[in-house]
Structure formats: structure tokens, C-alpha cells
Amino acid sequence: MKLKKLTSLLFCISLIFYSCTQKKVKRSTKSKNQVKKSIISKKNKKNIPKKRLDTLNNKNVVAFLTEYGKQNPETKVLFKTRLGDITIKLYKDTPLHRASFIFLTKIGYFNTTCFHRVVPNFIAQGGNSENKKTADIRNRYKHYLIPPEFKRHHKHKRGALAAAREWENNPKKLSTPFEFYFIQKRKGEHHLDFEHTVFGEVIKGMPVIDKIIAEKADTDEWPFVDINITAKVLE
Q: In the prediction, which pLDDT does 120 show?
């Protein structure tokens, strides 16, 4: 009888011990899973890619440039030419034009172009060339156009950077992002205010603009000797 009671007691103790062990193992396993899940989450969060940008075209131009601008906040670009260097500051309050200029600089578009129009006491215009690569890039992005971003405080003063545009069949005054011009006239060209978007200015290198405009050109105002551009984003 005593032996039977002892056996029962031992069985109960064993059962309690087994139950506690199982709970401990279960809690331990859950804890490990939680740690593993935490590591995976941190790893995934760390490696989350930036929002994918679709191919730029006229249908998504605003959405594309808005997102691109967020990911590429730079505002300074350096132009190198055979006549010297020009440092450009882009305005933050013309975000679509700024983003487009940075985009074209980074994909190397301006490196295929030159200053193709020089008009003394007026402007130096660039962003075009006879290079096939220039046309290829324009075609790749469907010759997209940018809505105007007119600002009262951005005038066509000396050194201003503005976007070219078509004047015919363009009632919305959409900008051509591939071509730009710098104002050289000392008194500015204020009759162009609110006709073309001014989105930046020269902060270093205005004497170079003067040299570019002094170059001899043909009847189409294209310099006889090309003034090629090498563009680089600074900051």
C-alpha cells in the first residue's frame, strides 16, 4: 500500500516537472521567434529600396519630377566649357524645373550638347547640338514638356537661367526642358518675365557668358566653333 502511494506520488511529481519543462521550452521558442522576426524587420527596413521611378514622359512628367526632386535635392550645377567654367544655382521654389535640370545633368544629356545660339547683348542659349546622342535622349523621353513655374521674384535679370519654349501652339507656356538660356544684357530682359520660367542663376562665371556671346557665329547665331558643355552636379 505504501509502495502504491509512493509510486503515485512519483508519477505526479514527474507529470508536474514535464509540464513545467514544456512551458519553459515553449516560452523559449517563442522568444527566439520574436528575436528572429525583429532582426528580419530591421534588415528589411534597412534595405528598403527607394521608390521606383518610371520612364519619364509627358503623361507622368509632374509625378516623376516631383518624386525625383525628393530623391535628388541638389541645387548647384557646374558647366565646363573651352572658354571657362560656369557655376549655376537652381531655385528650390521652381521644383519641377530644378528636378528636370538635375535629371538631365545626371543622365549626361547636357554633355552631348553645346551653346548653339549666341546673341550679343541678349542671351546665350544651350542644350542642343548636331550630335545624334542628343536626339536619341530627347526621343527616349518623348520630348516631355514642363508646366510653367512663374514667380514674381524671379526676373530675367543679368545671369538669370530660364527655360526655352515654343511660342506657337503653346497657350500654356510649357517649357522645353532640354534647352535653356542665360541672360547676358546688363539691364536684363524683363519683357520675357512670365513668358519663360526663370529657375536659376549664375553665381560664378558671368565673364564666361560674356566670352561665349562674343564668339563669332553664322547667320543662325550658331558659333562657328562649337562651345561644348560638360555638366556636373555639385551639391
A: 97
Residue 210 to residue 83: CA distance in whole angstroms: 10
Residue 108 phi/psi, 5° resolution?
Answer: 85, 15
Task: Return the CATH number of 61-233, one of 1.10.390.10, 1.10.260.30, 2.40.100.10, 3.90.1150.10.
Answer: 2.40.100.10
Domain ranges for the chain: 1-48, 61-233
- HSE-CB of 140 using CA atoms within 13 angstroms: 12
* pLDDT tens profile 48-65: 345 556 689 999 999 999
Q: What is the pLDDT of residue 53?
A: 64
Of 203, 206, 181, nearest to 124 by C-alpha is: 181
Q: How far apart are CA 97 and CA 28, in angstroms?
A: 58
pLDDT under 70 in the chain at which residues? 1-54
Give the predicted TM-score (pTM) of the model.
0.78
How far is the C-alpha of 86 from the C-alpha of 110, rounded, in Å? Answer: 14
pLDDT at position 169 is: 95
pLDDT at 55: 84
